[in-house]
């Protein structure tokens, strides 16, 4: 039985292991503009990626100036809609990211962090096209981030912001960890059944 308990403790230790920081650079995607849906274990809404070098003239906009790690960045598709990133299960910590206005100097960006629909954090950034603004958030226990932009006196749809090098700490085990957990708990089940059979044999 000590062996069984030891195996169970090991499996639980894997489950409760330290969270892993993840730097999302978007650079493994094609530079052609394309929508983000499920990426890096996260669900994305109204967000896309592109490489500024792929489009003539984009290098001298916020898309180019906001590129921290070449060659791709993320942006809110449509400009006038709210972008979001979320987890279906579990929580994550929002550590930091770089943000730039795509077209309009003085663009306002509100970043909000939620857990189960409850707003836990909120911050407004004032962005320009000349270069990225680094935001060290340090927000914990989130299941969703939203990004809303506006500009006083402008009702146009060109209110895109650019995001690069998004750093999150996920508290959900990676797929490989889940596989190890399944095997570990399966092994615990085998050990428990074997122990019970031995106890029944000894009693008989």
How many domains make up the coordinates? 2
Structural class: alpha+beta
- Shape estimate: globular
Uncertain runs: 2-16
Give the helix tally.
Answer: 3
Which CATH architecture of the largest domain?
Sandwich
Distance between the termini: 19 Å
The CATH topology of the largest domain? Jelly Rolls
At the fourth level of CATH, the homologous superfamily of the largest domain is Protein of unknown function DUF4465
What percent of residues adopt helix (DSSP H or I)? 10-25%
**Average pLDDT rating:** 83
DSSP, total strands = 11
From N to C, what is the helix and strand string?
HEEEHEEEEEEEEH
Q: What is the strand content?
A: 35-45%
Assign the CATH class of the largest domain: Mainly Beta
Q: Radius of gyration in whole Å, from Cα?
A: 23 Å
Largest beta-sheet characterization: 11 strands, antiparallel
Describe this structure in words.
By secondary structure, this protein is α+β, with helices and mostly antiparallel strands. It is built from 3 helices and 11 strands, in the order αβββαββββββββα. The protein has 2 domains: 1-18 and 171-204; 20-170, Jelly Rolls. Helices cover 23% and strands 42% of the residues. The radius of gyration is 23 Å and the shape is globular. It starts with a helix and ends with a helix.
């Amino acid at each position: 039985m000590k062996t069984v308990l030891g195996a169970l403790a090991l499996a639980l230790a894997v489950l409760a292991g330290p969270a892993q920081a993840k730097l999302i650079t978007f650079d493994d995607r094609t530079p052609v503009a394309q929508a983000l849906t499920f990426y890096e274990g996260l669900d994305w809404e109204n967000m896309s990626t592109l490489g500024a070098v792929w489009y003539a003239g984009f290098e001298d906009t916020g898309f180019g100036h906001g590129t921290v790690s070449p060659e791709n960045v993320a942006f809110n598709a449509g400009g006038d809609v709210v972008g979001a990133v979320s987890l279906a299960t579990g929580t994550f910590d929002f550590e930091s990211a770089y943000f730039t206005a795509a077209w309009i100097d003085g663009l306002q960006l509100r970043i909000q962090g939620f857990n189960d629909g409850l707003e836990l954090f909120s911050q407004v950034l004032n962005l320009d096209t000349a270069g990225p603004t680094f935001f060290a958030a340090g927000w914990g226990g989130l299941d969703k981030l939203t990004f809303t932009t506006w500009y006083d006196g402008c009702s146009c749809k060109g209110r895109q912001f650019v995001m690069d090098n998004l750093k999150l700490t996920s508290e959900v085990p990676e797929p490989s960890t889940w596989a190890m957990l399944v095997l570990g708990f399966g092994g615990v089940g085998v050990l428990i059944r074997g122990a019970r059979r031995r106890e029944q044999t000894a009693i008989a």
